UniProtKB/TrEMBL annotation, chain B:
The chain crosses the membrane at residues 68-89, 101-121, 127-144, 151-172, 196-219, 255-274. This is Sugar ABC transporter permease. GO terms for cellular component: plasma membrane. It is found in: Cell membrane. GO terms for biological process: transmembrane transport. Belongs to the binding-protein-dependent transport system permease family. It comes from Terrihalobacillus insolitus. Residues 64-275 form the ABC transmembrane type-1 domain.
TrEMBL record, chain C:
This is Carbohydrate ABC transporter permease. Gene3D superfamilies: MetI-like. It holds the Pfam family BPD_transp_1. It comes from Terrihalobacillus insolitus. CDD domains: TM_PBP2 (cd06261). InterPro entries: MetI-like, MetI-like_sf. Keywords: Cell membrane, Membrane, Transmembrane, Transmembrane helix, Transport.
Length: 453, 284, 293
């Protein structure tokens, strides 16, 4: 009998709690449904939102035409940038009383699953922080607002090479929000032990120094990193032909480059575990197992987390250059869903987030660079050349390189397939002793068939 | 003694829930395997194209091969080893519940921590090679060598899984009548003899269950590969479901991903039938 | 600790005639268990020690440095201060409560007829249930999401809980449990005039205890660690469970392993407590003959 009572009690408890949860949820649904009703569903993207962007905030009544709820999806920015994001939300809302902004932060690893699932139910966030690869995939499918049209008024404020990052099949589908270019953090102690008093300036020099460094200190010099595919454009080898219809990386220069890489590998100058993401450069550098790390200064502080001592003695220098003399600028982008119910407000918010003032403020907080020309002129980026702090100095050099930097990601939908083909070919060269020329030819064929689809 | 209406009264709510959240989605996924669904574009019926493509796809063949290899490495160990452990921790000894908890630890460790930890353990200059060096075994690039990567991942799987399956066997052992052991002891049976002749036959249904579950687990595993190796090097650790995941969420080929899933489904189904023939003796 | 345990067993064993043999066996058992322990406890020790390490200690060193020299609780403090941990824990508690109780009820309900009754379509239903286990979740995820959306459960805890309220795995497990109960037990109950529900609730359900314990533990872990689904369904960060909250420790520009480890320990402790409670619930009948003879 007692057991029966217990069971009944349990059942009541379950039903009761279910009831509470269900009512709580239906309340939430009602409010959100109410919000979307008074949304302007203007499908045409006219430029009437232009006056709301830029650093001169519009205070006239005209901006009040904008209304609706704008969901802003960010990637792994909370809680570190909570104040900054809330500030954006509040100032935009006060400029446009009809608009409410909702910030939704998503872990980096789950972005694609989340965005695709939401897209399947027609529930894509209005404004999204997306990486460049994904912008190209979603843009090609027509899921994002064409920014060449919707943001024509602000297009010229961006660096051209970075504005182009969001382009696929001839149109641009995102506004660059912040960007990173590389600097170089190096360990002067290790260099000194190997008899060098300055870090390398080019990749070629870097490889030349590597054997001595390895011999004298046991640490690696130059290594092949997971982003090795960008070594092509950095050394003047294009991924694709002019009209992006065929692979163009199977050149004698590429064969020569890979042949050298294979030699270096056989000499033990670097190991494949870095390329395969098995060890992180931050860790290797922090353990003084590598003499320098060519990466964005925003990541230098990872060294500080792992080993404050090593960070303390580190210095920063200008980024290594390939034969093309150009740096790759990889922006994070702000895109607007083409199915957004409050598209005008969403586009206005996207422009607001990426305007010079807001970009500058974010760049200062996160040690990244603003892709807006006006913002980079801020004295902040001219400082740091003599700083003792590696991040500060790295920021200076990275900012210097931004002028000539460009986004090197090919403007096609199948970017990830192209990288994959190149990586598989390179791994065959290293692990299976495949001839570099054969491997490149095979990768070329794979990329061509991808592009033909 | 029971009537059909009894059965249906018990099954009604569960079946409704299963219908909504299991059967309908599964059938929807099956339907998608005949389309070019990619979330964004309008859906087009492509007939058997995805299936034909799968059979011509060398990547898929490789992934299927990898999956079977992984299954063969993992499942036999996960079926047998946990029985031994369960028998050991089912004794009344001081502190034994502590051991049960410790063996279950690996199950509780999050994916993120597992990946960080084991990458470090398996690194060329990592702990595993450090200990192996005492045995005179040279540096092995466990996760960066196509021929060892699956062995390493299988090891992590066993490490993470044996406590999980130990739990099932422990539950099954609770149903073994103690008198049977006493009888066996009177006949002079040793500790292990006792268990081979008494325990194993009695927990055979559970052995069947664990075989089925761990088989499905092995065939569906991909998180471990995704977080530890991304399927590399040279796709040597790309399992079928990792390929499904990549096709669906990186390449946006949901239709193709579904087709691969259903080919895999048929493979698991056949294996499960074979298992049932050999192990399930409860066709009540 | 093991030392005293062995001594205690000596005392216990000496009471009976087989003292020496039993002692050997207990010692052997402990030895085996300790070897396995060495392998399984590493992650816990490493996570624990990493979470306590200060800036001066290296994390990824070989041989591993398990005892921090620069011991500090600042990592825990930092995690606690930067995230609303108690709120996340409370959210997780609500989600896991339903995530444990509902499968226990619904899976047993479904498993009972599938294991102990004969009716038309039984095998078909069982095969269908088992078959769905063979389909990767990655391809059914979007369809399930659409069902939740159509039911209007998006953004609510119900949307997180309901899809896991019954699982094919759980039904399979409970069926296994029901099958192992001897048939004669019900027959006598029926003679006593009990109806079907009484047999289920009063007679068989309590006998399922070991299996219910297993399912409870597994469901608990599953809902505790579940983060992709809550991420998809919930839209308010204030309703996030702990695992999802802890993901915030990996920022866009930083991944501080010490903080991640501290977060992992915070999330692990409640699970350990639950495991200890539940395993007592179903292994209390551990047989004792091996020691007492």
């Amino acid at each position: 009998m007692n057991k029966m009572m217990n069971a009944k009690f349990l059942l009541m408890l379950v039903l009761g709690m279910m009831l509470i949860t269900f009512t709580a949820c239906s309340d939430g649904d009602e409010t959100s449904a109410g919000d979307t009703e008074d949304t302007t569903t203007n499908e045409e993207n006219t430029d009437n939102t232009g006056d709301n962007t830029g650093d001169t905030a519009d205070t006239s009544g005209s901006s009040d035409e904008l209304s609706g709820e704008v969901e802003f999806m960010t990637i792994s920015l909370l809680p570190a940038f909570e104040d900054y994001l809330n500030g954006l939300k509040e100032s935009f809302e006060s400029e446009h009383p009809g608009v409410t902004v909702k910030i939704n932060d998503v872990p980096y690893d789950q972005v694609e699953q989340l965005v695709l699932t939401k897209a399947a139910s027609g529930d894509l966030p209005d404004v999204m922080n997306l990486n460049t690869d994904f912008v190209k995939k979603a843009g090609a499918k027509g899921a994002l607002v064409n920014m060449d049209e919707a943001a024509a008024d602000v297009k010229d404020t961006f660096f051209e090479g970075i504005w182009e990052a969001g382009s696929v099949n001839g149109s641009v589908y995102a506004l660059p929000w912040y960007t990173t270019t590389s600097g170089l953090i190096y360990n002067p102690e290790l260099l000194e032990k190997a008899g060098y008093d300055a870090p390398p300036a080019t990749f070629e020099e870097a490889w030349e120094m590597s054997p001595t460094i390895l011999e004298k200190t046991g640490a690696y010099g130059e290594v092949i990193m997971p982003e090795m595919h960008f070594q092509f454009p950095k050394n003047g080898i294009p991924f694709l032909n002019e009209d992006n219809t065929k692979a163009a990386f199977n050149t004698p220069e590429a064969v020569e480059l890979w042949t050298k890489y294979k030699e270096y590998y056989d000499e033990g100058l670097y190991d494949i575990d870095i390329l395969l993401n098995q060890v992180s450069m931050a860790e290797l550098y922090a353990q003084e197992k590598v003499a320098w790390w060519y990466t964005g200064p925003q990541l230098f502080r990872q060294v500080k987390d792992l080993s404050p001592d090593v960070y303390e003695k580190s210095l920063a220098g200008p980024p290594l250059e390939g034969t093309a003399g150009k740096q790759h600028a990889n922006p994070m982008n702000i895109a607007v869903s083409s199915t957004s119910k409050s598209k005008d407000a969403a586009v206005a918010f996207a422009k607001f987030v990426t305007n010079a003032d807001n970009q500058l403020a974010f760049a200062k907080e996160a040690a990244v660079l603003p892709p807006v020309k006006e913002a980079i002129e801020d004295p902040f980026f001219a400082e740091g050349e003599d700083s003792e702090d590696a991040t500060e100095r790295g920021k200076f050099y990275a900012a210097q390189a931004l002028d000539t930097a460009e986004n090197m990601i090919p403007p096609v939908e199948s970017v990830s397939g192209i990288y994959e083909a190149i990586h598989q070919a390179f791994q065959r060269v290293l692990l299976q002793d495949v001839d570099p020329a054969d491997a490149l030819t095979q990768a070329e064929q794979e990329v061509n068939s991808l592009l033909a689809e | 003694m029971y009537k059909a209406r009894h059965a249906w009264s018990f099954l009604s709510i569960p079946l409704l829930l299963l219908l909504l959240f299991t059967f309908i989605p599964s059938i929807a996924a099956l339907g998608l395997s005949f389309t070019n669904y990619n979330v964004f574009d309008p859906v087009e019926w492509v007939g058997l194209n995805n299936y034909i493509q799968a059979f011509q796809d060398s990547e898929f063949r490789k992934a299927l091969f990898n999956t079977v290899y992984y299954w063969l490495l993992v499942t036999p160990v996960l079926v047998v080893f946990p029985i031994l452990i369960a028998v050991l921790v089912n004794q009344k000894l001081r502190g034994i519940s502590m051991f049960r908890l410790i063996f279950y630890f690996p199950v509780l460790v999050s994916v993120v921590v597992t990946a960080i930890l084991w990458k470090w353990m398996f690194a060329k200059q990592g702990i595993i090679n450090y200990f192996l060096s005492f045995l005179g075994i040279g540096e092995i690039g466990w996760l960066i060598n196509p021929s060892t990567v699956m062995l390493a991942l299988a090891f992590v799987t066993v490490w993470q899984g044996f406590g999980y399956y130990m739990l099932f066997y422990l539950a099954a052992l609770q149903g073994v009548p103690k008198e049977l052991y006493e009888a066996c002891e009177l006949d002079g049976g040793s500790f292990w003899q006792k268990h081979i002749y008494v325990t194993v036959p009695l927990i055979k249904p559970m052995i069947f269950f664990v075989t089925v579950i761990s088989t499905m687990g092995a065939f569906k595993e991909f998180t471990l590969m995704l977080t530890m190796t991304s399927g590399g090097p040279l796709r040597a650790s790309t399992t079928a479901v990792l390929l499904v995941f990549q096709e669906a969420f990186t390449e946006l080929n949901m239709g193709y991903a579904s087709a691969i899933s259903f080919i895999l489904f048929i493979v698991i189904l056949i294996i499960t039938f074979i298992n049932q023939k050999f192990l399930d003796q409860n066709p009540r | 600790m093991a030392q005293t345990a062995i001594e205690n067993n000596i005392k216990m064993s000496n009471k009976d005639g087989y003292g020496k043999k039993k002692l050997l066996r207990a010692g052997g058992t402990y030895l085996l268990l300790l070897i396995v322990t060495c392998i399984t406890i590493i992650p816990f020790l490493w996570t624990m020690s990493t979470s306590l390490k200060g800036e001066k200690d290296t994390i990824f060193s070989v041989p591993p440095q398990l005892i921090p020299t620069d011991i500090t609780f600042s990592n825990f403090v930092q995690v606690w201060n930067s995230l609303p941990i108690p709120m996340y824990l409370l959210n997780t508690l609500i989600l896991t409560f339903f995530g444990v109780v509902l499968p226990l009820i619904f899976c047993s309900l479904a498993a009972f007829p599938l294991a102990r009754m004969n009716f038309k379509g039984k095998n078909l239903i069982f095969m269908m249930i088992i078959a769905t286990m063979m389909i990767p979740n990655e391809v059914t995820m979007i369809p399930v999401y659409l069902v939740i959306d159509k039911l209007g459960l998006m953004g609510s805890y119900a949307g997180v809980i309901v899809p896991g309220a019954i699982t094919a795995f759980g039904i399979f497990l409970m069926r296994q449990g029901f099958i192992e109960i001897p048939k004669e037990i019900e027959e006598s109950a029926i003679i006593d005039g009990a109806n079907v529900w009484q047999i289920f609730w009063r007679l068989l359900f309590p006998m399922l205890r070991p299996m219910l314990g297993v399912l409870a533990i597994l469901s608990f872990i599953a809902s505790w660690n579940n983060f992709l689904w809550p991420l998809l369904v919930l839209d308010d960060p204030n309703s996030y469970p702990i695992t999802l909250g802890l993901y915030q420790l990996q920022g866009a520009f930083s991944a501080n392993t010490r903080l991640i480890a501290a977060g992992a320990i915070i999330a692990l402790l409640p699970v350990m407590i639950v495991f200890i409670i539940f395993q007592r619930f179903f292994i209390e009948a551990a047989y004792s003959s091996s020691v007492k003879g």
